[in-house]
Amino acid sequence: MRWDEFASACPDIAEASAERFRRRELCMLGTLRADGSPRISPCELDFAAGELLLGMMWRSRKALDLLRDPRCVLHTCTTDRMGTEGDAKIYADAVDVRDAELRETYRAAVRARIDWAPDEPNFHVFAVDVRSAGFISFAEPKTALSWDPVRGTRTLPFPD
Prior knowledge:
Layout: H1 3-9, H2 11-24, E1 27-32, E2 38-48, E3 51-57, H3 61-68, E4 71-76, E5 87-96, H4 100-114, E6 123-137, E7 143-148, E8 152-155
Antiparallel strand pairs: 1-2, 1-4, 2-3, 3-6, 4-5, 5-6, 6-7, 7-8
Helix pairs in contact: 1-2
């Protein structure tokens, strides 16, 4: 489901995740290599046109992974070992963006954020199609949330 649809279905996780992603302008992206083993890579992301968009260098390994197998996970960059800033995971499929208008909207979002944008056609951009999500924070009050389209948003018992 598109990011804006996910945000409507699960505002608690979407808002907390978006805040964390925007603050760092980066996520950790988990993909699957050709041999099925996992790969984790830093990845810039932007929100535009109701989508969560991932930009990548042309023919980068993570882009090739996603073109071959779109399954992925996005994880907020954790910098606090105590977990008080919150930890989001978005499980998704990455959709290769070919639409010229959405690609230009992505470029405009990047330019607004860092005063630079990649030149066409030498970059990849993927829209995140959310399948499930989770958020946990060890700050008081401790929070553990999970969401999927079948069961909806659930507050989980907090692990001790």
